[in-house]
Design goal:
Layout (H helix, E strand, L loop, with lengths): L1 H16 L6 E10 L12 H4 L5 E10 L3 E6 L4 E5 L6 E5 L4 E5 L4 E8 L2 E7 L7 E9 L2 E10 L2 E8 L18 E7 L4 E9 L15 E3 L1 H19 L5 E2 L2 E2 L5
Parallel strand pairs: 8-14
Antiparallel strand pairs: 1-2, 1-13, 2-3, 3-6, 4-5, 6-7, 7-8, 9-10, 10-11, 11-12, 12-13, 15-16
């Protein structure tokens, strides 16, 4: 009888010991609101533009422990929409981007894919000034608090849970918040991340590995490369109504 009592007493302790609050995996749904540049549509393409999707949905994965986190695609996804006449297609595919954050060293490494080239950008985490609103709600069974940050006139809203005391979230946001971000909207609501699942378990080293493949550049250099490519495409395809090789070019942002 004595042995039985001891066994029953120790069982809950053993089960509790298997649960960790300082590492795990979050799967987010990313929703991107699509905005078509109607002012620069080719002539006669207004009706066709109405067939374009109003939003795109992807899944993202955040692996984390008390020292680092890795944010990346959950699975390769591609969405294709074909116009009514079969001559126009919109193909949205995720880039193989990754964001690695080292909390202790206060360092972020981003892997960016752009027009077939891969870049590595090492930088310090972006500093956001958060303001708690006092609003609360439950996400995946966790009590969450709302925080708002405004930078360059763009609003970011985060819902974080103090129950998981890891300051991280989608991309590298949430580093100044006292808990894991389970929901976030950025760019005045044009992009939303919502946690679909949270698994608190040990994360292997390979799932937290810093990205190594790509050309190392500064953020300023990367921004210049992107700007130059966009200008090149604008010159190549021209303005309203211009065609190249029988295909129409429509700018979506």
């Amino acid at each position: 009888m004595k042995n039985t009592i001891i066994l029953l007493f120790l069982l809950p302790v053993a089960l509790f010991a298997q649960v960790t609050l300082d590492q795990g995996t979050v799967i987010y749904e990313q929703v991107i609101e699509m905005e078509i540049d109607m002012a620069n549509l080719p002539e006669g393409m207004g009706d066709m533009a109405k067939l374009f999707p109003k939003e795109q949905r992807f899944k993202k994965q955040l692996n984390f422990n008390s020292s680092v986190s890795l944010f990346r695609n959950y699975a390769a996804e591609e969405v294709e929409d074909e116009g009514a006449d079969g001559n126009m297609r919109v193909i949205m595919a995720q880039n193989e981007d990754e964001t690695f954050t080292d909390f202790k060293k206060k360092r972020v490494v981003e892997k960016k894919s752009f027009f077939g080239r891969t870049f590595l950008i090492e930088d310090k985490p972006e500093k956001l000034a958060w303001k708690l609103t006092g609003e609360k709600k439950e996400i995946l069974g966790y009590a969450c608090m709302k925080a708002i940050s405004i930078k360059d006139s763009a609003e970011t809203v985060a819902w974080f849970t103090p129950a998981i005391p890891i300051s991280t979230g989608p991309e590298n946001a949430g580093l100044q918040l006292p808990g894991l971000v389970l929901e976030m909207t950025v760019d005045d609501g044009n992009i939303t991340y919502t946690a679909l699942s949270l698994d608190l378990k040990k994360v292997g080293k390979s799932d937290l590995a810093q990205p190594k493949t790509g050309k190392s550049v500064t953020r300023e250099a990367y921004d210049a490369i992107v700007k130059a490519k966009i200008e090149e495409m604008q010159e190549q395809f021209g303005g309203k109504g211009q065609q190249r090789g029988g295909s129409q070019v429509i700018m979506i942002r």
